[in-house]
Amino acid sequence: MRKWIALLMISLLAVTTACSGSTGTRGEGGKKETLQIGALYPLSGAAALLGDESFRGAELAVKLRNKNGGVAGGKHVELVKTDAPDANAAQAEANRLITQKGLHLILGSYSSAISFAASEVAERNGVLYWEMGAISDPITERGYKYVIRTNPPASEFAKVEIQYIKEVVAPKLGKSPTDVRIGIVHEDSLYGTTVAEFITKMAKEEKMQIATTQPYNMKSVDLSSVVLNVKQAKPDVLIAVSYLNDAILFWRQAKELGLDVPVFIGTGGGHTMSDFQKALGKDVNGIIDVDFPQYEINKSYTPGLEEFLKLYKETYNEEPRSGHSLANFMGTNVLLEVIDKVGTIDPDKIKQAALEYKLEPGKSATGWGVDFDQAKGQNKLGQPYVHQWIDGKLVTVWPKGAAVQEAQLPMPKWSERK
């Protein structure tokens, strides 16, 4: 009888330990208490490369924090990793993390469509959703209580693009800003559509001309009709909002069909990745990219960047593939500092502590400051930077505080490229 009672007590203890994810903590028998956080990213499917790169940044921040003693007096942080390749999967996985794993905090997620869907599930369940990569403005415009975003939204990307065209590109082309003809090509999900709408709105406010707007499906295997429509419109500046595969496809077909534009501006996504450069070779040179901070940047403006690069190489045995990992590293570090202050995974306490958290620009690995909008949870001090592919490297060219080189404009025509 005593033996059976002992076995029953052990079983009950095991169940209690397994269910402790409902509070995001566990700690029995002298082991370090662990705080569990859901990590929801597209790790398969069309967005897998950037989804995985983004996850790596969060993983490295947690690894570094645990190595340095954890949070709240020694608590260990554990990421519960899950794959959400599309919006439907995002809803299902968010539900699983909440109802089956008992988690009260989820971070992610790179893709706007995925973030939009998963954060809705989190909101319904009173779970905090901490976004560090998805840029669509509606994510933080719904009046949700449990959404925080550290990265800049799509409207900021469009604002930087229009400002850069006005202050730098137009003078380089010898034109007045109002004479610059802008073309837009964009994938038609929430990400591309949101950015394109803001570009159009802000360009019109500056009385710039929109020569053409060409939406397409990111899974398209032929963008020749889009290329030919742009070629016919003859824009001075072409702005593209693309993921990786469609960015490569468009640029290859632009070369095949002889589409020459004086200035080509990518909006993050695929235009940032080392895989983009590897696929296009020397043809990548000259492309402008507006995105999260990259690695050829003024290091005095990005304290902690060198440590991140070293840790990345030690962990994955390669160079970072894009700045998405850096943005997630920075955002996760902010979250861990907030958790360190709160001491536990409590959505309301973490949200309140986040709203009180402040960091000046130039004091993080991305150079971003932190000041969350009290009503929306959006960081107001995150800013996209302007980069250019020069000699196979993505170099920061604007703003001046972060830049290491001046942009080379206009781009050479295909016939002039060596």
Automatic annotation (TrEMBL):
Signal peptide: 1-20
Keywords associated with the record: Signal
Ranges for domain Leucine-binding protein: 34-360
Database matches in CDD domains: PBP1_ABC_ligand_binding-like (cd06340)
PROSITE patterns cross-referenced by the UniProt entry: PROKAR_LIPOPROTEIN
Origin superkingdom: Bacteria
InterPro entries documented for this protein: BCAA_transport (IPR051010), Leu-bd (IPR028081), Peripla_BP_I (IPR028082)
Similarity-based family: Belongs to the leucine-binding protein family.
Protein name per Swiss-Prot or TrEMBL: Leucine-binding protein domain-containing protein
UniProt organism field: Effusibacillus lacus
